[in-house]
Amino acid sequence: MTVEKASESSRAIQGRTADTCSLSQSEITRLFSPYQNAPVRILKMGVSSESPLDQWSQYFAKLEKIVGCDLAQSAAELTFKNPCIELVEGDVNQPVTWEQILNHSDSYTIMIDEGARQSSQVIQTFLQYFPLIENNGVYAIQGLQCSYWEEFGGGLYHPFSPIAFFKRLVDILNHDHWGVTKSRAEFLKVFASEYNIELDEATLDSISRIEFTNSMCVIKKSAAETSLRGLRLFSGEVGDLAENAETPDQSENLWSDDASALEDQLRLSNQLVTDLQQALARQSETAQNLQQEVTRYHSSLSWKVTRPLRVSRRVLGKTYHRARRVALKPRETLRSYIDSRKNRLDYESWTKAHELSKGSLKKQRKICSTFEYQPLISIILPVYKIDKKIFEETINSVLAQSYTNWEICIAFAYAEDQEMLEYLQELAAKDKRFKVEVCENKGISANSNVSLALAEGDFIALLDHDDILAPFALYEVVRKLNESSDVDFLYSDKDCVNESGEQRLNALFKPDWSPEIMYSVNYLTHFNIIRRSVVEDIGGFRSETDGAQDWDLFLRVSQVTEKIERITGVFYHWRIHIGSTASGIEAKPYAIASQLKTIEDHVAFKGFDAHVELNADSGFRILWNGTSQTTVDMLIDVEHASSERLNALIENVYANSGDYEVSLFCLVKSNFDWRPSSQVRKKLSQIKTRTYDTPEQKTAIMHQLVQQGDGDCLVFTTDSVQELNEQCLTELVGWTTQNPEIAFTSSLVLDPNETVVEAGLIVDKHGNGTPLFRDSILRQWGWFGGPLWYRNCSASNPWMVSVARSEYQGIGGLDDELEYRKAFINLCGKIRSTGKRGFVNPHARVKLVQKPENDIPAFDESLTEDPYFHPYFSSAYPLELKH
């Protein structure tokens, strides 16, 4: 007979209920059927009720004994029908409990540890009890989800969690192939040191099989002499094979011989991180205490004396994050540092070449008088608790403008600063363009609305009280307004300056209006020019979004107008200093909640059936609801005559298809002898194939394949794809079918090392596509943002791209006069011409079997005209500035 599906159990451990994952009937049969008719003795560590042990006793026909062990006093009250069941009350790691278990039996066929305990206890239990397992017996650990939880001594990257330990045992299985003279126990010495445990070489040598399933690990034991670990199976042509092939020496291999050194380095790095966290906490507390004193005396000597303490808080914070990154990803960090250093030097050179001379600015002032349209620009400037010297630089940058028809609308919300108040009053007395209103501080949005109420210009310009305007900023704005009189919103490029204002860095060159980027980041940032009537019509700034009030305003403006344009040029410099988000979001932690509300409200306005969550990679993530009823036709371009590749892709697709009904349409070469795997054969009724003889036929036949299906959503892919992540199809299909503004959705394409292959294409006038972010580190941001942003693009290669069938049919499909990839780029362009947008979704990721080579066309100057690129770049790969 079989055991019914085990009921879910939970145990309260250290004040937290940890659910242990139940074994299904199929799992029980798979794992334990070899023992069903054999004499068995079972040790079950963790007993929540009578029924599971009674069911076990019925399942095993020749059961000799089941010993259940639990530390809960209520376990002693359990009663069992089968006399073979015994119960021990106590902690399995305590000597007295160990003795009682040995008294029942000195060896066991099966042990099941319920897990869901502290990391050290789970590992100690395994090392203590696994030697009691008979040869060919199994040891199963449940509840390993707790390995990822802090209160159980775990975490996704925790180096000493049970999951981390059992993963190491996989290497133990392959000890014969290490190629270095290191024992198994020595390999695990960091665990022995961390948890003060002893490691027995013979015990480790007896491990013959390890299997992981959801929240569970199963380990099989065999005598060393009977283990099959060393058995090698070969397939292929018959040839000479050395009878005793030796493992090559790896003593010179850094990643083999220096493992212990790397482990020690990891431990030191972890300790450094801990020390830095503690130091940062102390400094944070000190800084908070000092802040009250600093604000009271910021114009006195005490301000200067305490300034190093405030600076140290930022320095320690950055040091901690850098140390952690070095510890976890040293090579990636080194490359990122080299790239950022090179970019900084390049940008310094670029800025020197593009600075306007005094003569050029003087010429601009003359040109301004010839403009047909010379609007009053109202600069919205809320002021609160700012160093007077920094603020004076902001004011001076406005006074230096070559276009002079402006006004500054200042809402001063910190009247306690008498020196600043007198300075503002002096400005207003000397220059009528300065409007100053002293107000109660009710938050950045309310203060901004006070400034807005003072404005009389046709357009407002947003400026932070610590930023610096380029002297030509307003001139370029008005010049653009004379060219496009109906525009409602203008934005420009930006960079940052350090606190002293001496160094410019962190430039961001922005693409044309890209609504989807706004779901990841406010790439528009500070200095933006908006028609005043539009801002007033939508009610100005909202106090409930303080900390993200600009972001919120821009999204709400975009809800009422599409007349949004970019002006190329670095018009303002965002100052990096304590208290500014330019120094990191941790400077204003409340801003995160406001940002989330901003995105949630925008999604609600759009009427999307979706919800929003914070995401470490892309800022925020939009999760679509109710897409499971969508039918999907996947078109696979089989480029390689490899059954293994095609089978692997198909298996991966169906493993990650979720609730979708997916039909596959494969375009293969006529000479390809495809041999479906056993898994694929189960799906053959959902798979259709068409063949072609020459590349010229490919596009037309792919179009015919599309017509054979009837899925709501088309997904174009290729067998160059090795794997897609679990949510890939959901992300692609959701955006394409649920957002009526999206024409196509591309995945983020990576190579096997998770280096970027493509994050969308920019397209030249010849129809050639050039990939964005090729060879970029995944988590790196620079002059053009980063590959992990949601990002609008002109086209994509058909690595893994979704298109709504209705959109495909509406523009007539693929142009069979063009080569397939170029036809697909053309398809993207034709769909975009209907007013829809294409974009790259960083949460839909695919890995290629290998990175493509020689696939990037020569840079054509017309690429700078692509709306989702920038005219200041002279190359997309590598990304380089024009000099």
Automatic annotation (TrEMBL):
Residues 378-535 form the Glycosyltransferase 2-like domain. It comes from the Bacteria. The keyword Coiled coil applies. Residues 259-293 form a coiled coil. InterPro entries: Glyco_trans_2-like, Nucleotide-diphossugar_trans, SAM-dependent_MTases_sf. Keywords: Coiled coil, Transferase. GO terms for molecular function: hexosyltransferase activity. This is Glycosyltransferase. It comes from Gimesia benthica.
